[in-house]
Amino acid sequence: MPVTIDPWRITGQPEIDSYVGGRVELAVLLVNCLAVTTAHGRPVTPPQSGEERRAAINAQLAAAGRPPSALTVADADRLAEVAGQLRPVFGAGDRILAVVAQLNDLLIRHQAVANLHDHPDRPPTLAFHRADAGLVDAWAADMGTALAMVIGVGQSIRLGACQAGKCSLVFFDTTRNASRRFCDLSCQNRAKASAYRARRRA
């Protein structure tokens, strides 16, 4: 018998929702850092070398108030590949079925598996990767599973891509009615100004 889950509120426990949301936000951070070529109306060049990628990831983690990661240059290069694979999940729209197939492949490749990790000074914590997984597999499994959970409860619309011109930044829409269309206020204002000029020309 299929289990019915209330859309978006995956469970009644805010800790679990926070865990899933945090992994989706990590996916947003990596995609925007490593896999977009336009932002706020301008072309951008993603970091090209492993060292540049590692520095960019840690800079974005710091900007988001997250602790720095001990990732290696090789890890950063592999995470760039993961970010490129996760990018189509955001703003998928009618392409969601094709995206799901790619996401399933990622989950298998990085050996995603839900399990409890032991900690000597606190209760066991839920994770979506093996306890012995390396950093890249752990991050990819956690991010991929969190995205799959959002999609699986019928909320893929919350995995958005900016709709302003020349901006491919992505975001996680946590508004009540899933109405967000832009990565931030600057792109929203650009889109409004562009629409106003188009109306004036018409």
UniProtKB/TrEMBL annotation:
It comes from Nonomuraea polychroma. This is Putative RNA-binding Zn ribbon-like protein. Residues 158-200 form the Zinc finger CGNR domain. It comes from the Bacteria.
